[in-house]
Inverse folding.
């Protein structure tokens, strides 16, 4: 399996090299040169598989030539062994034909655990095989950071630096990162937004000369292909669990950086009978504006009660553009150059037609999201986190137009990660942390607050690496 850049100038890589590269050398993102295909009979044969078994079946074609079957099985089994529900990704029915896919039973209570428990182990295997040490660098709007740290803190061959926007994530999200006591874990609170953090990470990948000569920079954000690959699995898992065969299914996905949604799109491209993918956003609605009005333009990010979606530059949208423009890398490079220059881009009529054939979108303000949380709890006793609530609202909105279509809303985080939202919905007592994190708010923290300055942050990283030698 070969991987190619969305911008066309970087060399094609094998799986292992694409994972280590993260961002392509031309600034693009790696995607498979070809997608594996599963026909309806093969998808039907997945029935009865547990989550690790299905993950092996879905991921195996993507790693061909890089991992043997025994290695892949071992990585998968270890990655999901610590999830706190026997189904790994259980479905909960909220209403007629409306389901919630709970993706928060991993160690850090968020969907990012599905990819990052796997990626951490994968990176350690690759680095050990190559005799290399790496520097893992990532930006987080809240959940990626803790999941990356949990997945990589035991890596013998890597140091990890996570940037988060200072005072723009929940206290639980921050403490899940900053209370980890491991010598190879470093947290940086950046005085700025998530997009500022993400831009610093991208600039560092474009020029990593600040690192010692024997270190390679590795990405854990969803720009890393292995993240997307691992997230494809639970779309198949949900559909198979609901007996989807000849009948189609729809998914509503709380979306910020578009990685989780792109994974659903790939599941559709691989043969899963997906009729509609509904993008659910908060006030930072660049994707909703694009899908509804062809307006993909930057606006100042607005802090909300769903901070993991307080993102204005959706990195993985470039991967979708690559397909919408028939994999014309020159066109994509031109679009992205224009977006970097002007802060906006417009899609062609053909691209918009293709986009709207599969995707819909919905935007919710904080006040509307809080009403959804309160109403769902009144109806069923179920407490939604703010991101999942936005997904449920978007799913219900679309389902009103296609009532016979099974709708699966992705529950991306445990409600205890966002106590402010629960409190403002009048449900503070319901948002208790699970037992393994019950003392989280009393644990000692360790992190550095730095200005939004690429050179300063790079110097900080270099200093810490030299001190560790």
């Amino acid at each position: 399996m070969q991987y190619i850049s969305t911008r066309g100038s970087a060399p094609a890589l094998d799986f292992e090299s694409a994972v280590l590269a993260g961002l392509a050398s031309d600034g693009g993102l790696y995607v498979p040169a070809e997608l594996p295909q599963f026909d309806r009979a093969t998808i039907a044969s997945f029935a009865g598989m547990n989550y690790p078994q299905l993950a092996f079946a879905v991921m195996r074609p993507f790693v061909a030539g890089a991992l043997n079957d025994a290695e892949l099985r071992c990585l998968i089994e270890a990655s999901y062994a610590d999830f706190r529900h026997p189904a790994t990704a259980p479905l909960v029915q909220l209403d007629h034909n409306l389901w919630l896919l709970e993706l928060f039973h991993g160690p850090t209570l968020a969907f990012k655990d599905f990819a990052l428990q796997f990626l951490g182990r994968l990176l350690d295997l690759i680095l050990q095989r190559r005799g290399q040490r790496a520097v893992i660098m990532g930006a987080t709007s809240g959940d990626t950071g803790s999941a990356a740290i949990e997945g990589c803190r035991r890596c013998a061959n890597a140091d990890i630096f996570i940037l988060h926007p200072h005072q723009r994530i929940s206290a639980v999200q921050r403490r899940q990162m900053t209370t980890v006591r491991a010598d190879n874990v470093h947290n940086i609170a950046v005085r700025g937004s998530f997009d500022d953090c993400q831009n610093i990470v991208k600039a560092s990948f474009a020029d990593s000369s600040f690192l010692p000569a024997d270190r390679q920079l590795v990405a854990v954000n969803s720009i890393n292909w292995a993240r997307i690959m691992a997230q494809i699995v639970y779309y198949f898992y949900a559909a198979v669990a609901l007996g989807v065969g000849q009948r189609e299914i729809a998914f509503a996905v709380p979306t910020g950086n578009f990685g989780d949604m792109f994974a659903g799109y790939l599941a559709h491209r691989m043969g899963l009978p997906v009729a509609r993918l509904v993008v659910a956003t908060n006030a930072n609605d660049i994707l909703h504006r694009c899908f509804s009005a062809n307006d993909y333009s930057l606006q100042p990010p607005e802090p909300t009660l769903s901070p993991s979606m307080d993102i204005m530059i959706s990195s993985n949208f470039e991967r979708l553009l690559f397909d919408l423009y028939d994999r014309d890398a020159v066109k994509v490079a031109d679009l992205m150059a224009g977006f970097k220059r002007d802060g906006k881009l417009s899609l062609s009529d053909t691209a918009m037609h293709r986009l709207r054939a599969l995707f819909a979108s919905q935007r919710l303000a904080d006040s509307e999201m809080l009403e959804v949380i309160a109403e769902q709890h009144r109806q069923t006793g179920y407490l939604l986190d703010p991101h999942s609530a936005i997904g449920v609202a978007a799913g219900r909105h679309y389902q009103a137009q296609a009532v016979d279509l099974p709708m699966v809303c992705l529950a991306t985080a445990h409600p205890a990660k966002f106590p402010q939202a629960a409190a403002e919905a009048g449900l503070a007592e319901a948002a208790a942390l699970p037992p393994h994190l019950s003392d989280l708010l009393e644990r000692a923290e360790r992190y550095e607050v730095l200005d939004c300055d690429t050179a300063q942050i790079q110097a900080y990283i270099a200093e810490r690496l030299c001190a560790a030698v």
Notes: The two ends are 37 Å apart (CA to CA). The longest helix spans residues 112-130. The domain at 85-110+226-430 is CATH 3.40.50.1100 (Rossmann fold). The CA atoms of residues 8 and 420 lie 44 Å apart.
